[in-house]
From TrEMBL:
This is NAD(P)H-binding protein. It comes from the Bacteria. Residues 6-139 form the NAD(P)-binding domain. InterPro entries: NAD(P)-bd_dom, NAD(P)-bd_dom_sf, NmrA-type_oxidoreductase.
Length: 284
């Protein structure tokens, strides 16, 4: 049985839907903190059990009978995130899983200025130290970030952001389809190549694309990290969240989120979704 954690989130749910397109429902199970949110999956024959990364015993029950476990990275940072992933890996091994998959990131690195990246690096070390075979899914940066960055610019006509670097923006749907294929077909021992969209673009290029799609000129204006952080704080954004975004720009300047790689397209057997096509749907 294939177990998917985080199935109430965007990526986890999409993986489940792709699995159900190619496998019977009785081969698929999900582990979530609130099973009532996925009652519709239970009605379709998916095994839905409560699993909380903070409660190891609940994961052991949720992972029962696992052949493969997909551990979707938790929405936490630092020691809390790494601890949660450690608990999930131990539960998967205890359940007898033959393979553990983890949603890592192409930009993972112990010294990255973007806080989730050191967590991914530490988690990869944990998983590679497990006896169970594993696959580290080195996903590209989610394309869903771009509409959020553009939102103020759609009103003001200016995309005011710190200096950045090219990012291989990648659609959740493509990553979900690829993950489902690996869960069903196997392969990819250890880390995958970067699983990315077809091109790495910076925000100057993104502003030009958004201008074309909306019919309104959106200027790309570079501001300092401090000015950007101060603007977010003035808008009511919590400091931790503001620092997180500033770290994202800093990591992109280092080239951590590029270049694009053809591995995802090869795995899918079709072109990956371009950021232009993604934004055409998101901004339409």
């Amino acid at each position: 049985m294939i177990i998917v954690t985080g199935a109430s989130g965007e990526l986890g749910r999409a993986v489940v839907e792709d699995l159900l397109d190619h496998a019977p429902a009785d081969r698929v199970a999900v582990s979530v903190r609130d099973p009532d949110k996925l009652a519709d999956l239970r009605e379709r024959g998916v095994r839905v059990r409560r699993g909380d990364f903070g409660e190891p015993a609940s994961l052991e029950a949720a992972f029962e009978g696992a052949s493969a476990v997909l551990v979707v990275s938790v929405n936490a940072l630092g020691a809390e995130a790494v601890r949660a992933h450690r608990v999930a890996f131990a539960a998967a091994e205890a359940a007898g899983a033959k393979r553990i998959l983890y949603t890592s990131h192409m930009g993972r690195g112990a010294t990255s200025p973007f806080p989730p990246m050191p967590d991914h690096a530490a988690t990869e070390e944990l998983l590679q130290g497990c006896a169970t075979p594993s696959t580290l899914l080195r996903n590209g940066f989610y394309a869903s970030t771009v509409p959020r960055l553009l939102q103020p610019a759609l009103t003001t006509g200016e995309l005011r952001v710190p200096e950045d670097g090219p990012v291989a923006w990648t659609a959740h749907a493509d990553l979900a389809e690829a993950t489902a294929r690996i869960l069903l077909d196997g392969g990819f021992d250890g880390p995958t190549p970067p699983l990315t969209g077809p091109a790495a673009l910076d925000l100057r290029q993104i502003a030009a694309i958004a201008s074309d799609l909306t019919g309104r000129t959106i200027r790309h204006v570079v501001v300092s990290d401090d000015e950007y952080r101060d603007g977010m704080l003035a808008a009511g954004v919590p400091r931790d969240a503001a620092d997180l975004l500033v770290g994202m720009f800093a990591a992109s300047r280092l080239g951590d989120f590029g270049p694009a790689d053809p591995a995802l397209e090869t795995l899918l057997g079709r072109p990956a979704t371009s950021i232009e096509d993604y934004l055409r749907g998101a901004l339409g």
